[in-house]
Specification:
Low-confidence stretches: 1-8
Distance between the termini: 49 Å
CATH class: Alpha Beta
Strand order of the largest sheet: 1-7-6-5-4-3-2
Strand content: 35-45%
Length: about 160
Amino acid sequence: MTNTQTAAKTGTVRVSRIIKAPAERVYKAFLDADAMAKWMPPGGYTGRFDPVDARVGGGFHGSFTSLDKKESHSFGGTYLELEPYSRIVHTDKFETDHPDMQNEMRVTVTFEEVEGGTEVKIVQENVPAMIPVEDATTGWNMSLDNLARLVEIPGHPDA
């Protein structure tokens, strides 16, 4: 398969948000299984995560299940880079037999202290073509809404 063919079958999602909390607090929410289960599932889904092995070469495994229990999606990945409070890079892959959903994605999350909190930027590359980039972007934005509700501290200097 040529690079042109591969590029036509995948997409890239880019989202960013300012979270009114210190970078350390936001960063930790990306590496804690209990926190991830609360903020990562998009609307209409619940989440479950196994304990996270937060080290380069370690990984994560989780699943999202629809509230009506008719859909469940399991996935996992390996941490490639962990720079405390500034950057996380990991793979991400759906656990499925569907050939069009077996892409290994790459997710880069950066955290930058800015006035008013922490700017979180997420780039998810190699998203399977079966998932429209617009839908994946909407899902990430829902997750970031949940993240803000979880980690923002009312009255905090960064809030």
